[in-house]
């Protein structure tokens, strides 16, 4: 049998592709993140009653083994999440890996993606982008993920829940992205779809005010950070070069003071700080000349 990884609607039921609809009608078994929600979709499609298998983050290993067993027995299985594509910020990666390891054929049936949908209307010129998905909720993992998003020169896309979106925007601003252009898309493809544009700091203030007024925000958010402007990319590169040269100067001074041969010191320091050997050699000459 074959396992189909099927993209489902991210909001509007009409997000479903014709191919996905046909696949869901024809397979023998549907592995669902939430069998009740999938049952609604199957009824909407007029599909005949299907055997459903529960597959979510808490039973992923056991469910994956069951899917492999069914496929090896000749059954065709569609794997779906509540919204979007399994394995992309949803359960599915382990199942795909287990199927691949067992030699079970895997077929992707693409569908709607909130990240791509939001990026497409952002207006940000992005040859590439960083996908953050759902960030860790707290701790070191969250801090590191936010720092990596801000440090990346490319556009960045992440998902956030309504009760954490204000905190996330504020944290992004605190880490240096406050003036970066941003799109916040809420409830994409649903009835109350909404988009807002501004800087990260402006959107943090906007949604904080909305939260205070309404008591709470509703609907999942997709946040798109614009890529850095060319001027900021150049400024960052210049700062990095200056910092590397300062570090190289300090290390060279220490090494030469201990009598380490100049050529060896240059070679090792250049490797340590990630600078060009010629630039480090010039610094070494300046130090030997008393600079």
Explain the overall architecture.
With 291 residues, this protein is α/β, with parallel strands linked by helices. It folds into three domains: 3-112, Tetrapyrrole methylase, N-terminal domain (Cobalt-precorrin-4 Transmethylase, domain 1, 3-Layer(aba) Sandwich); 115-226, Methyltransferase, Cobalt-precorrin-4 Transmethylase, Domain 2, CATH 3.30.950; 231-288, no CATH class. Helices cover 49% and strands 17% of the residues. The protein is built from eleven helices and ten strands. It has helices spanning 18-26, 35-45, 60-72, 93-101, 114-122, 139-151, 165-177, 200-214, 230-257, 262-273, 277-288; strands spanning 3-6, 29-32, 51-54, 77-80, 106-109, 129-134, 155-160, 181-186, 194-199, 221-225. The chain has a five-stranded parallel beta sheet, sandwiched between helices. It has a five-stranded mixed beta sheet with strand order 6-7-10-8-9, sandwiched between helices. Strand 8 and strand 9 (194-199) form a beta hairpin. Helix 3 (60-72) runs parallel beside helix 4 (93-101). The longest helix has 28 residues, at 230-257. The radius of gyration is 26 Å and the shape is globular. 34% of the residues are buried. The model has no long low-confidence stretch (mean pLDDT 92).
């Amino acid at each position: 049998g074959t396992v189909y990884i099927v993209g489902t609607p991210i909001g509007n039921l009409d997000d479903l592709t014709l191919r996905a609809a046909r696949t869901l009608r024809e397979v023998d078994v549907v592995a669902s993140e939430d069998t009740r929600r999938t049952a609604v979709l199957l009824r909407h499609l007029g599909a005949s009653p299907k055997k459903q298998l529960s597959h979510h983050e808490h039973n992923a290993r056991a469910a994956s083994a069951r899917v492999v067993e069914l496929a090896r027995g000749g059954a065709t299985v569609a794997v779906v999440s509540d919204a979007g594509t399994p394995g992309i910020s949803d359960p599915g990666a382990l199942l795909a890996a287990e199927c691949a390891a067992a030699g079970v054929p895997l077929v992707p049936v693409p569908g709607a993606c909130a990240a791509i949908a939001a990026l497409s209307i952002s207006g940000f010129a992005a040859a590439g982008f960083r996908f953050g998905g759902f960030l860790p909720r707290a701790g070191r993992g969250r801090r590191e993920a936010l720092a990596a998003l801000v440090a990346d020169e490319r556009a960045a896309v992440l998902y956030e829940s309504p009760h954490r979106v204000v905190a996330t925007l504020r944290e992004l601003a605190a880490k240096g992205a406050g003036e970066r252009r941003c799109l916040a898309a809420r409830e994409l493809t649903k009835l109350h779809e909404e988009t807002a544009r501004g800087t990260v700091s402006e959107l943090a203030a906007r949604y904080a005010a909305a939260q205070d007024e309404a008591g709470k925000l509703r609907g999942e958010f997709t946040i798109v950070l614009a890529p850095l402007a060319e001027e900021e990319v150049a400024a960052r590169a210049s700062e990095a070069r200056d910092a590397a040269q300062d570090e190289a100067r300090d290390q060279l001074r220490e090494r030469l003071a201990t009598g380490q041969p100049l050529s060896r010191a240059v070679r090792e320091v250049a490797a340590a700080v990630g600078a060009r050997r010629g630039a480090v050699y010039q610094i070494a000459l300046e130090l030997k000349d008393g600079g």
